[in-house]
Amino acid sequence: MIVIDTNVFVGACMGTGASARVIELCLLGQVAPAMGSALLMEFEDVLSHTALFEGCRLNATEREELLDIFLAQAKWVKTYFSWRPNLRDEGDNHVLELAVACAASHIVTWNTRDFSSMELRFPQLSIVTPPDFLKETTA
User: Fold this and answer.
1) How is domain 2-138 classified at the architecture level of CATH?
2) SS3 track for 110-131
3) Who has the most CB within 10 Å: 80, 109, 112, 135?
4) What are 49-58's contacts with CB under 8 Å, separation 24+?
């Protein structure tokens, strides 16, 4: 099980190669993504920012369809514990908490730096960029 950060999903919508490939692996059932309520709200909020997607290869309807298909592959996970304060950016704590709740092997994000300052460490959890995740999964 892995947790996909919002920036990776946005990258997939924009056509960024590694992000798109990670999402494709999820859609094909080769990787099991986790989803929680806070992360879903963040996905939906970011997808509603039309200015962010100017020049995007997917229109708003297609982005919503991609999210629906992604959610159909995701395992819904309830987060019962907060591990706060833990990260410098409060907005990232819910991603980490979801990963801990589902015993994820990876958080796939373009913001690895934001997770490098964790006060609490979870040794079984790797924080990786999409290219690094792809190297691990295809090696």
Assistant:
1) 3-Layer(aba) Sandwich (3.40)
2) CCHHHHCCCCCCCCCCEEECHH
3) 109
4) 52/10, 53/13, 53/14, 56/13, 56/14, 56/15, 57/13, 57/14, 57/15, 58/13
Q: With pLDDT > 70 as the criterion, what percentage of the chain qualifies? A: 85
Identify the pLDDT of residue 93: 79
Kindly report the pTM of this predicted structure: 0.90
Per-residue model confidence as pLDDT tens digits over 47-57:
999 899 988 98
Give 57-96 as a 3 state SS string.
CCCHHHHHHHHHHHHHHCEECCCCCCCCCCCCCHHHHHHH
